[in-house]
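Same chain as my last thread, 145 residues:
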Amino acid sequence: MKKKEKWIGLADLDEDNTFEWSDGNAVLMTNWGTNEPVRYQGDKKACVMYEETTNWVLADCDTTYSSVCKRPEEIVPTSQTPDGCSEGQEALDGSCYELVHDYRTFDAANNDCLDKGGHLVIIESQYVNAKSSTIIYSTIIFTCL
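reply #2:
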């Protein structure tokens, strides 16, 4: 059975209950699941994943999940990428979203996104949360059957 959880770019790596986006943007909204975020003394939950319900859940950063990268669209679209995104990416509001099927830790997933010119997905609004979850989970349906 495939895991449906995905790393997003939110974490509290200092473990001081101050969450930050991996690109340094301010946290303007959250979409925590019921009773989240919950951290107990000694646990390693500091990174945030996206559940299929689009709720956010705190998880151990060393757990491996697939992830979602977000990068800016190219300034000049080409005939092969009319929306400025590469093949396998979806365009939304000036950014390209890519579902990365490889299972990686939070740091490895973020480094992979950085290598591609982006970050783990940053969710600035309920609209982006809803639209990105549609992109993510419609991609899963089509690519994992």
